[in-house]
Amino acid sequence: MPDFSFEDKHSGLIVGVDEAGRGPWAGPVMAGAVVFLSRDVDKFLLDNLDDSKKLSAKKREALYEILLEERAKGHILAATGEASAQEIDEVNILQATFLAMRRAVKNLGQKVDFAIVDGNQKPNCLDCDCQTIIKGDARCYSIAAASIMAKVTRDRLMCKLAEQYPFYGFEKNAGYGTKAHIEGLQQHGIIKGVHRLSYKPVKAFL
């Protein structure tokens, strides 16, 4: 279970950063950034924060709403940032992920002192020092919260895209290469600005 041990190793404002959506064939890559200004937060939040992929959609949504409530109370800073499918095609998914992370941290609206980032690849564009933590979203409260911010925000965005483009199953697959998505590509082709044209499975439909 996550805790605050990684945050406690540093002083000042410590931001947890994580991403969602590196693998899908469509949609942006999204990053979340969260700073715990206070640890006097909803007990349900701390008891249930974890890697967002391990949580049910219902629990992720509940935790997301609590994060917004805690932000409104001034207990946390929380923001997201994204890089578009076009930016992914232009600079590659890793650099686009770093770009989304930078935007998420900037969108906090307050300068941070240190970043703890999920994974093993260190962003080269944050305006602060940082540390990478493998499986950080299962070990660190700030990163777990950031993963939920990123995942829920992205899933909601893909549901909106599904309303506009109803043939690809985005509301269920979030842009991943499922059977419904492949059938949509076969029957309706790619959506410019939505599909990642640099991804090999998508190139087949160009």
Kindly report how far apart the N and C termini lie: 44 Å
The portion of residues assigned to helices is 40-55%
Q: Give the name of the CATH superfamily.
A: Ribonuclease H-like superfamily/Ribonuclease H
Could you please say which CATH topology applies here? Nucleotidyltransferase, domain 5
- Alpha-beta content class: alpha/beta
C-alpha Rg, in Å? 17 Å
Task: Describe what this molecule looks like in 3D.
By secondary structure, the protein is an alpha/beta fold. It has a single domain, classed as Ribonuclease H-like superfamily/Ribonuclease H (Nucleotidyltransferase, domain 5). It is built from 8 helices and 5 strands, in the order ββααβααββαααα. Strands 3-2-1-4-5 form a 5-stranded mixed sheet. Helix 2 crosses helix 5 and helix 3 crosses helix 4. The protein is globular and about 55 Å long. It starts with 13 loop residues before the first strand and ends with a helix. 45% of the residues are buried. The model has no long low-confidence stretch (mean pLDDT 96).
Write a brief caption for the model.
The chain has 206 residues and is an alpha/beta fold.
